[in-house]
Amino acid sequence: MTSETNPALDFTHDAAAESWVASAQGSVDFPIQNLPMGVIECDRGCLVACAIGEDFLDLAAACDDGLLPSLDEESLRALRAVDLNQWMGLRRSQRRAVRAAIFELLCADGRARDLPDEVRRKIVRPLKSAGLVLPAAVGDYTDFYAGIHHATNVGKLFRPESPLLPNYKHVPVGYHGRSSSLVASGCDVQRPFGQIVTEPGGLPRHLKSRRLDFELELAVWITGGNALGTPIPVQEAGDAIAGYGLLNDWSARDIQTWEYQPLGPFLSKNFMTTVSPWVVSSDALTPFVTHPLVRMPEDPELQPYLHGGDGAPELPDIRFEVHLSTESMRAEGLPPYRISRSSTASLWWTPAQLVAHHTVGGCNLRPGDLFGSGTISGASPGTLGSLLEISDGGRSPLTLPSGETRTFLEAGDELVMTGHCERPGFRRIGFGACTGRVVG
Amino acid sequence: MTSETNPALDFTHDAAAESWVASAQGSVDFPIQNLPMGVIECDRGCLVACAIGEDFLDLAAACDDGLLPSLDEESLRALRAVDLNQWMGLRRSQRRAVRAAIFELLCADGRARDLPDEVRRKIVRPLKSAGLVLPAAVGDYTDFYAGIHHATNVGKLFRPESPLLPNYKHVPVGYHGRSSSLVASGCDVQRPFGQIVTEPGGLPRHLKSRRLDFELELAVWITGGNALGTPIPVQEAGDAIAGYGLLNDWSARDIQTWEYQPLGPFLSKNFMTTVSPWVVSSDALTPFVTHPLVRMPEDPELQPYLHGGDGAPELPDIRFEVHLSTESMRAEGLPPYRISRSSTASLWWTPAQLVAHHTVGGCNLRPGDLFGSGTISGASPGTLGSLLEISDGGRSPLTLPSGETRTFLEAGDELVMTGHCERPGFRRIGFGACTGRVVG
User: Is residue A54 helix, strand or coil?
Assistant: First the structure.
């Protein structure tokens, strides 16, 4: 794997550009500067698509009609596939060429200017008519613990004096998650049964979880491609990232407490993990790259393999919100209530550092692998990424506009996570939503 | 998923039966009563095969020649595939029919009695000419901790007074492993680099592991097929198991010690996991089913979802051996030295209980998923399944016939795991070998 230098801004970031797709004009999530990739399920099966406003570009149809003539055969095959794994497996320069070709096709003064209306209607169709599925067949899903305020808050519940474990600032802690139970935004989540100890020192009982929680995380989609035994240097790790999304790492806290010693979380997490369906590419986020968390002089020195130096890709600055609505709130016509607002500025490790660490012992990554960042919480109230933190371990219920209270999630509750990037002089880039409703 | 009753012994278990394949007569691992399934890589690509003596049956060729006429279309498609996932996805009755049809074809007085020699030579070829690869594309790999003596021995290193954690006898502890770095027997293993603390309380350094270990485990190949949200009852869990193999969960103990809190092992395990290439089917093991470990009156009562009752599949009685040879030993012509001998009798949880537990919260299993049992150690010296135990945490080196000593593995060391079942009145069934040599 060779590094392909991070590009300067190019024409796809031009804030003045507009699409001929009417719904894209003024779109807060999916203007033509975004062009996130996803997979639509329709009567023709699964097909690769790109979101544009409230519509999607059917990339298989665009290929069939020869509307992406600048692309090589390998890229065209990837766009005709049933998932994004092949697209993720392209070289970064190829993915950039795909992005440029789609921009040209959708741009108001671009290639499609003279296309007949029936062709336009064939290749661009309303999102509301389409079902979005998981964008890739995930070979391996890894969940990290890079949100330092979350690690501190959770640590405080167990060790008020020294919340962070000694390894935290040295090693990007992570563990392997379950691929089979990854689902796309919109799937209902069942509270899982499991072994639960209801009083200290008591015997476990087989019960439905009473402490179902969400965890707000950044999803990182991996291009991979390193051979087993070959680490990816942190300077090249940006090329191993195809793009980003939102991830809800549903967690059954009562099952977790009992099962997790000594090998980590298992059934408390693997009943379902929800991912937003659109992959916002690294290239769309170029204007929003920022500096990671500042290390203090008393913080440990970084191992060289985690120290990017000048060429290291930095952190995309993504802002998140989490809204909750209950059945009663919806019945009363109350809008979803914002329970958290945070950003990637709370990540102790950058995505590139996670890639470098994951592979430093030789572990191979494959196109379509998925990383979760770990729960993202800020340092203050209103910025917490889980109910465990918001309710202080279940001790301080959250009061909702309906007068209801919540320590953990209850049947009928719906969680909506959103994310976006913004910066003066650039169009806002959104991630769409990552939603799930608790049933049963 | 409905349970298909565990069969009585049938003609495929008849100890008097012999194959017309000469190398199968007297074979200690692969007599006609075994018929393990695997995947061969040859100049025609990957193809499904069945081991018979020192040869293999090319199942694609057998299908092409119409030599398995009793099988339905779905089963024939599975045998023409490039991996065993489709075979694992068949119903148990279909897998049994495949086994019966192969037996008929290879039996001395069966269907192939009158086949011309050139056809026999086409469908049955020497194993030594073939490369064996991982038998399935593993969607998810889960590693358990079901060897109770291992859990006790490792616990003693940290907590001499109460080695087993309070949850151990209640809940089948497990964690998700890495699928991408699973390899078939025979691959060399590199000692991984990672963060290692070399003195108590010291800072981590980026070093090559000095405490590379093996772990002897039973591999359990899963048929899966439960929908997300739908547990598999323990009484039906036997049908969710396609068969068994051997697994070496290579472990870097020094990396593990530093990284594993609080979320479990990660880079200390994911650099490589080696699996034996042959899947010995549950149906081949019917004669060797035995009773699991006896619970004592003081042991906790089993949760109903783990309590099989009368219909529950029990434990296959599999005996294991682990041999070690060093470069010097091989140079001196010394044979590999046996460092461990144990059996499935040390498993606190049966494979069916692992299936029931894995799915009780709704997690879905897929055909081709893989479970590791956890390290299998007996209760006495000579029966320990890892060097961590054999060397008592590195304090008591093992002396080899060459006069060399080992606490952990060194460059040039080769590990060979074998397994077999035996019982008077039945032919011995072997698992082949699970080998790996340490390089660098």
Answer: coil
